[in-house]
From TrEMBL:
The keyword Membrane applies. Keywords: Membrane, Transmembrane, Transmembrane helix. This is ABC transporter permease. The chain crosses the membrane at residues 41-62, 104-124, 145-172, 184-203, 210-228, 258-278, 316-335, 361-386, 410-434, 454-475, 482-505, 525-545.
Length: 553
């Protein structure tokens, strides 16, 4: 018995885990993540496919209008459009395919990059921060299993989007090889930023920090590409420092070349290797970047839930307002060329459907930009309103409510700031549009018309935010419907006439009741009605939150 008790351990036990055990359980985790996010993984392909379908009809019809395509190509040569779209390949003979590539690739890379970043952080650092990963790691799960499973899930999501998007392009009679090259190159570019998020998840100790660093890298890539493309025709050396630039350098539908995608693949491999090294060198639950020591007591300003909510939302408000404001300022610079564009497309059925009928199509064009600004503000408002759900799931809301703070006061603090922040994003965006238009020499419409446009959307924004709050209060698991409403609002605003939607379908969108203040003015009855709906939804939110139990963190 003694000999057996003192016998040396087997060599594998002495040496530690055998090769490959750091990936043990990857398949099980991947299946769990796919099941957990199955609705998300369906929404993204469908949403992007609808985006393609909504835009492609316009490009196909414009292909039969050489004058309109020529004016569009002229716009693509302006610095504002270069910064907002890309280097502008094929503008000398602008075809629908070249227009699709030039005008959609940037925005689709940004969209899928954000998806990839959020998904990677959600399943790595956020899970670790909540301590759920610690429970998972108690089983037969390797150190790197969750990271690899998260990345594989993002790969599957991007491939699914690429396949569905490619099929939509082919359905509109675009070349199959070029179409799938475009959609898969967009997916590959987005995966670069998913790999960036994987590295950030090892470096930062908190999910918000990892997300913030990853989005900052994405913003830097956008800026490098924009500056590089403006400096030199078809991009300078700065453009080649951006993964977004690598995707655009494939020149699909103009002069297809594959080799820039090798840069994306190489970057992904290097970033995954770096994430693996960093993940092996840090303690579980900790990041490599030291967390700055906080105060021993709370700052005097943090005297209540409102101050806490402000601290949580102020950074997002700053960067969202700044980023969208710069984009709308650049958009205003394009307005200088609008008269020529409007004159050339006045009889085009697509633009007539989007801009409506009337003598002043320039105002109608600016009204569409107002809808874009309202959509950006609505997205911010929904995201901030739903932060309450994250606070509840993490257990932080329960800790706050153990203090002498009522449920209504805690919820109101976050919602008031979410609504105020959405209003700030909307107003600053539209005023930035005015500043850009004024700087390009367009004096009319004046400042007052832009201000009226900005303020007219505020009641509609309140309805969107209140709807998200009501969903959170009554059915937390159904908060994704708030994003469905957001997408529906945009589709109705842009394509209701083109699709021939009936009034009852249009009326579901709060923004439809706003109309186009630049052309039709403001209907006070509609705005007051939206205010009433928003007030009712907010009351429902407070009543629902008061009656239900909090989820445990």
């Amino acid at each position: 018995m003694t000999a057996l008790a003192t016998a040396p351990a087997a060599p594998s036990a002495v040496r530690g885990p055998v090769f490959g055990s750091t990936l043990a359980g990857t398949g099980s985790l991947l299946r769990f993540m796919l099941r957990r996010d199955r609705l998300r993984l369906l929404v993204w392909p469908l949403g992007v496919a609808l985006l393609y379908a909504g835009a492609l009809g316009e490009y196909v019809i414009l292909g039969d209008d050489p004058e309109a395509m020529s004016v569009r190509a002229t716009l693509m040569r302006t610095p504002a459009m270069i910064s907002m779209a890309g280097p502008g390949y094929g503008v000398d003979d602008y075809t629908p395919g070249a227009a699709v590539a030039n005008e959609l690739i940037l925005w689709l890379v940004l969209t899928l990059a954000v998806m990839s970043i959020l998904q990677v952080v959600r399943h790595t650092r956020a899970e670790e921060e909540s301590s759920r990963s610690e429970l998972v790691r108690a089983g037969a799960v390797g150190r790197h299993a969750s990271s690899v499973a998260a990345l594989l899930q993002v790969v599957i999501a991007n491939v699914l989007v690429a396949v569905v998007s490619g099929l939509v392009l082919v359905a509109f009679d675009f070349d199959a090889a070029e179409s799938f090259t475009m959609t898969f190159s967009i997916a590959l570019g987005a995966l670069v930023f998913g790999a960036v998020a994987l590295v950030a998840a090892q470096a930062m100790e908190h999910g918000r920090g990892a997300t913030g660093i990853s989005l900052a890298v994405l913003g830097g890539a956008y800026s490098l590409r924009a500056v590089g493309d403006i400096q030199e025709e078809h991009g300078s050396w700065l453009s080649w420092l951006s993964p977004i630039g690598w995707v655009q350098q494939t020149r699909v539908f103009v002069d297809l070349r594959w080799w820039p995608l090798g840069l994306c693949a190489a970057a992904i491999v290097l970033l995954i290797a770096l994430a693996a090294v960093l993940g092996s060198r840090r303690d579980f639950g900790a990041g490599l970047v030291a967390v700055r020591a906080g105060r021993s007591d709370a700052a005097p300003a943090l005297t209540g839930p409102f101050a806490l909510a402000w601290v949580q939302q102020r950074t997002a408000l700053l960067w969202t307002s700044l980023g969208l404001g710069l984009m709308w300022f650049a958009s205003g610079g394009v307005v200088e060329a609008v008269p020529d564009l409007v004159e050339s497309v006045a009889d085009n059925p697509v633009y007539s459907a989007i801009l409506g009928e009337g003598d002043d199509l320039i105002r109608a064009f600016l009204g569409v930009f107002g809808l874009y600004a309202g959509s950006g503000a609505a997205a911010f408002g929904v995201a901030m309103a739903l932060r309450a759900k994250g606070e509840e799931e993490s257990g932080r809301a329960g800790l706050v409510l153990t203090k002498p703070v009522s449920r209504a006061r805690w919820l109101a603090s976050g919602l008031v700031l979410a609504l105020a922040g959405a209003a700030v994003v909307q107003v600053t965006g539209v005023l930035a549009l005015w500043a850009g238009a004024a700087s390009s020499g367009l004096d009319e419409p004046g400042f007052g018309a832009y201000l009226e446009l900005a303020l007219a959307y505020l009641p509609g924004l309140a309805v969107v935010v209140a709807f998200a709050a009501a969903l959170y209060a009554w059915v937390p698991k159904a908060t994704g419907l708030a994003w469905v409403l957001f997408g529906y609002v945009f589709v109705v605003g842009m394509f209701a006439d083109l699709f021939g939607l009936p009034d009852w379908a249009r009326g579901i969108s709060p923004f439809w009741w706003v109309g186009n203040p630049m052309v039709d003015g403001v209907d006070a009855a509609h705005l007051w009605g939206l205010c009433g709906v928003a007030a009712l939804l907010f009351l429902l939110a407070f009543a629902g939150f008061r009656r239900r139990d909090l989820q445990n963190g």
